[in-house]
Design a protein that fits this description.
Blueprint lengths: L5 H13 L6 E5 H8 L2 H6 E3 L7 E3 L2 E6 L5 E3 L1
């Protein structure tokens, strides 16, 4: 999935939550993360944990980086 943008990520999270699950982790491949991070809309919604700056959140979902290039998963 190299054509991701923040709107598609929002749609994936919404679809996951409509199935009755709570989105806790947004697992992204390192290149997908870099591509999304270059987008100003995505970057504006990413914030760090105040206790550990290595932990990042997109909206209310924790971001987990994966060693795969273009992976996307919601847990």
């Amino acid at each position: 999935m190299t054509d991701l943008n923040p709107q598609k990520i929002n749609r994936l999270i919404a679809e996951f939550e409509q199935r009755g699950h709570k989105a806790k982790v947004l697992a992204l491949g390192y290149r997908t993360y870099a591509q999304l991070f270059a987008d100003d809309h995505f970057f504006a919604k990413v914030h760090s944990d105040p206790h550990d700056p290595r932990i990042k959140f997109y909206q209310h979902v924790q971001i987990q980086l994966l060693p795969d290039k273009h992976a996307v998963a919601i847990k």
